[in-house]
Amino acid sequence: MHDILLFAPHLLLTLGILLCFVLGTLFRRPVGLYGVTLAATLLAGSFGLAVYPASGPVLPALKPFLATGMLTAYFLPLICALGIGVLLFFGAELKREGRKHDDELYALFLTALLGGIILAGGRNWLAFFLGLELLSLPLYILIGLRKDSGGTEASVKYFVMGATASGVLLFGIGLVYAGSGSLDIAHSLHAPEGGGTVLIGLGMILVGVAFKLSLAPFHLWAPDVYHGAPASVAALLTSMVKAAVGGGLLRIVLALGPELWPATVPVLWGLAALTMLAANLAALAQTSLKRMLGFSSAAHMGYLLMGVLCVNQAGPGPVMFYAAALAVMDLAAFGGLSLLDDGPEPVDTLASLRGLGRTRPWAAGLLAAGLAALSGLPPTAGFTGKLLLFRATIMGGYNWLGVIGILGAALSVYYYLRPLVALYLREGDAPTAPERLSIGGGVAVFLVLLALLGLGVAPSPILQLIP
């Protein structure tokens, strides 16, 4: 019974996947798919809150697979909560396009969610890779949801580059296993024997993870993919996916032994500095809002990596808090864009945003709140999260990296303010239809705004859960 409870979130999501496919097989236009998906996600997150942290699985076959400590207890409910937020926007977009009865799309969404919780809670390298692939494969299809040239190009580009990164990562796992003789993440990164082989393998693993997190120089796919994907799928990529991969990276870094840590620090330092500078400079030149948010998401991964560098001095708390805050901020930005982009003309350029702050106040307000939080303005989650990260960077002794981060954050204020000016201080060229939010869209706006402001004004409840 203990093992069943531990794997209840995974089993519930699997059951949801099967139900979606069965309903799609039995009925030509199945109803209730959205409800099944929402219920499976909500129940999985609830079981994660109730069961974890806990002692490990009892059965020997399951014991090496799942970590049941504080990291899993934090990231599993977080990933499910982000999944619910994305689903509220995703369902509305499918309904607008007349595809709310497509069972495979809901099943793919749940499969990605299942991969996310396996990745963030995996104890060994097999679970890590299985979770990463279950997370990635559905995205190749969901990105091409719209049958146009932009969606197809984005899907193919993400597939080709993602498959290459997965191959590099898998080869790295093989080298770590060859050098340490263990598939357990913690044990393999502490083994002194075969240190050179393990170090090379770890470097290849970091390359694969850097692609998924869009760290420079592996970030150039992000603006193209986000531009071609539907806004709700881009919200999935920037929120739930990056939270899950960030949780996996944090588990790897916390497991690093003293033999490997000195060689890893320069790599992480260089990735963080290059990402913050390159992504922020590239975002300045963008005229497409989705492309700008793609580079912005990459830049924020550089800020997150500053906290990862300082886990030994400041603990994992700043990284865990910022992972949640950043996911909510990106969810607000892309979710607001999804609600605005419901007409015949796409809403993506600064010109298309003009005047929408007055004619579409709720959707535009969500987008504006997300942009303000990403720029680090108080009293949003972005301000509190950046404050914790820069404090951790100073505690870790990486002062120059902190200076680079502050310069990057200052640069970002300019490109975040341009859409806000267009929304509220410019007149639109053509009349727009009045705002009509669906029930799901209204609930999503309320919940995301509440999380965005709540994490900024009252972060203590979350910080108390973090070791």
Which key phrases capture this entry?
76% helix
How does this structure look, described?
With 467 residues, the protein is mostly helical. It has 22 helices and no strands. The chain has helices at 2-6, 8-26, 33-51, 70-96, 103-121, 125-143, 149-180, 185-188, 195-212, 221-228, 231-255, 261-284, 289-309, 311-314, 317-340, 350-353, 356-359, 361-374, 381-396, 399-425, 439-457, 460-463. The two termini are 28 Å apart. The model has no long low-confidence stretch (mean pLDDT 86).
Q: Mean pLDDT score, rounded?
A: 86
Sequence stretches where pLDDT stays below 50 over 5 or more residues: none
Distance between the termini: 28 Å
What is the overall number of helices? 22
Order of helices and strands: HHHHHHHHHHHHHHHHHHHHHH
The coarse overall form would be: globular
Strand content range: under 5%
Q: State the total count of DSSP E strands.
A: 0
Major sheet: size, sense and barrel closure?
A: none
What structural class results from the helix and strand content? mainly alpha
